[in-house]
Amino acid sequence: MNIYLLGSFLNVLDKLDVLLDTESKNNPENLYITTALSLYDEPIWPEVHQQITTKGYPSKQICISDLDKSSLEDAVAKADVIYITGGNTFYLLQEIYKTGFNKTLKDWFTSGKTIVGESAGAVVLGPSIEAVKYMDDPSKAPDLHSMSGLALVNFLPLVHFDTHYYSENYPNMLSWIYESGQTFIPIKDSDLVKVSPDGSIRFL
Fold this sequence. Notes:
Blueprint: E1 3-6, H1 9-17, H2 22-25, E2 31-33, H3 45-54, E3 60-62, H4 69-78, E4 81-84, H5 89-99, H6 101-109, E5 114-118, H7 120-123, E6 156-159, H8 170-180, E7 184-187, E8 192-195, E9 201-203
Parallel strand pairs: 1-5, 2-3, 2-4, 4-5, 6-7
Antiparallel strand pairs: 1-8, 8-9
Helix pairs in contact: 4-6
């Protein structure tokens, strides 16, 4: 029952390889959730998913918005590892709540499974996503009525901390975080952060 947080899958695949249980990693029913990327005209997930699969991480690629509640629950039940990709954080959280995936994921995770969250997929696992309004566009999620995350970790995973693309966003975001009193962990794109069942945090 571990959580792995990261900014970029491709930067840390070699680290994941020695950490994930072989039997769990090789389960072809594992899920690669691309919902956060579905807003983009030219999504990059087919290429990334292919590289991940080539590295030895088989998984089924799904968008939770495309499945009914029963089909989504059945898919989750068969998985040992769920990978949640980056994309628009607000849209991802909106669809998580709309589909009921928040409860399904929590129940599945507490049964001893593993979540790997990349970028937006990491941020939604924290207690709130509001801080990333300086990085992402909240207007992409008009039906999102709460900024509360899934709270599977008790801090904000602050991803892409060393990425030049977001460097202009960080001063305002950090000011907001300090003023709000939130706890955060900065995560560089080369980092892999493991959160153990006891809540301990380890950079790998």
